[in-house]
Amino acid sequence: MDDIEHGVNDGGLEELLLSIDRPGDYCVGGRLYASMPKLTVEGVGDLSFPVPESQMAALIAAAQTAPYGKGTKTLVDRSVRDCRQIDAERVRLAGRGWPDSFDEIMDRVARGLGLSRDLLDVELYKLLVYEPGGFFSAHRDTEKSDGMVATLSVALPAQGAGGELVVRHGDRETVFDMTAEEPSEVAFAAFYADCPHEVRPVTDGYRVSLVFNLCLRSPGETPPAAPDYAVLADRVAESLSAWRREGATEKLAWVLDHQYSEEGLSFGALKGIDAARARVLSSAADRAGCELHAAILHIEEYGMPTLEVYDGGWGSSWDAEYSDSEFEEVIDGWRWLDGWASRDAGRAGRDAGRPPFGRVPLNDRELHPRGALDDAEPDERRLEESTGNEGATLALSYRLAAFVVWPRSKTVDIVASGHLDGAGRAEMLRFLSAAGDEEGLARFVRRVIVPEYDGSENEALAGVIDMLGSDVAAEVVSALVREHLARRPKAIPSLLTLIGETPAEASAAAWREVAREGARAALLGLSAVLDSPVPDVRLQLDFDEPPDESLDHEAVRDLLIMAYRFGLTDEAEAAAREIAGHPEWVAPERVLPAALADLRGHEGVAGAGACAYLWRVSADALVARSSAPPEAPADWTIAANLPCDCEHCAAVRAFCRDPAARSARFPLRKDLRRHLHREIDRYGLDLTHVTERRGRPFTLICTKTRASHDRRLAEYAEDVACMSSLLRSAPDGERDEAPSSRAARLAAAVAAAPDKAR
Predict the structure, then answer these.
(1) First-to-final CA distance of the chain
(2) pTM for the model
(3) How many helices (H) and strands (E) would you count in the chain?
(4) Which residues pair with 174 in a beta bridge?
């Protein structure tokens, strides 16, 4: 891959981060369930695990009071150190499974401290026994062997509590719980020899530990001390602050040394140098007012592959083939970040450390360090050979992990530059709300939610809109209604209903006005929606964009609830007239009965003028269509509205008009059979059509069905159910029992229906 272009002044950030030349931390610890050693102590015998009380007494009797070092002196003072020790010469470790268990401990220790396991020697130093109240005040270990670099403590199974090991380095502190009570459990901790540490008092029972010296196999060299990047973190913070002020790029991405899957990418799982750089960047980013995240970096490159020419040998001709890994010329490329991981997985609303930032583009000048991609191997290669006038093309896909830094004030701008689907927008609303970022929330709503709204954000938006304040909320609601009501006539009323229920009592008046004006705008804007063509979702094939909505019963219900909740009586009645005048948008036989049924429990709404008007419209439509059951067909004549005037379609029309014929045979070649297939299906004729594959040409067999009548029967049954629902929803003024009243006509139509239709 070609080297990336750099032009940004990063304040020496690359050199600073590249100067972190070894991984690891000042201490490491953990717990292991594995094969235990055969541990023999002179004067005591083989220990059992957990160490029983009788052996514990024998160990204490065999041990001596442990001294401590003070300068060049070795002192015994139980006010400084209260424990007992047994020298390594009196302890023997054996057991078939123990070497493997100890190797695993050492592998984890070497990785955690950033040391080479192959160059690390281990020697047993002491066996320590802490009785109740035993402790060791803060101290540093003295160098006990040449090349000693660290100390390893392995706590063996023993009943007890307390005795935590506390290790410090600079302004950092790590506490290790060293209790190990199960028979196959050991707790271990290792730390660089220059780190102050202490053992807190044992509060109950005992603690038994093996202490090892860890030495580097490098005579004559000064053993490394614990990594200390505090000064470096200060300089990185200064570099980030200078970069932020300059503003040449909006973010910086640093490619990690190791590979991570999206599921496995987290700050707690970083390896080696990546973990060390993360600690430096984390401290520096906070001081420089920047955000730090990890993400998956995707790179796609497309271009002309290299043509490799070679001679096949004596007597053969020159030949050539395209390389599937090198470009002669890169035509285009794309770089973006996704699969985000946050440092603060525990903070509320952060979704377990997975911020909802979506797909964010990355440009070449934002990618670091220089040459990071030179040796990268593509995860996928796609070579398409040349065809016709088109030359061969090569596409390479890379997937890497990266740290990403940006000024905290630009979080919304960064996210807005990428792609967030509806779920991502909703998560981002919750993210900003949980972070208490009122200014960022307002910018995100204006820049992203308003232009990209599709209704999937309703619940999240209603949940955070009070954080915007009533003035900004009024602006947002007005913009949403104005820009999206025509395409989202279902989602907008639902949002307004949610907003009307959200605000706290302290600001009820202001919020009521926000919701009222939004409801008024939606009701008055309904005529423009209904005057537009009904969306045909069958023609909407862009699956990245949710289809336009029709006005369903929930939308009608929400509009009427809002109208009467806010006293918009005139607007509600005008909207009802618009709805009634557009049956192609709002089917009076289906949508209106369902909406009116939903409104039964809403006092002051169900009996209002607009609802009564819509009830009458729906009742008239249903009675006109289904006052009596549909009659069964008298014969086998079926409608055939085929406009084609070819002889074969004419033959099908003649067959359809024949009242007695049930089936017909049409011997036709393949293209003519296909033509009849298309015409029959396109115009919905009540015919099945199958090909009999015998003789030549094959024969198309058409058979008449009762499909239209069956559909009408199903429709009639639904009509009866809707009429029954309307009777239960009848307004007080429409319950007249006179035979000519709508309620009476509805009741008569329902009574006339056969039992199976009810």
Answers:
(1) 72
(2) 0.60
(3) 22, 29
(4) 167
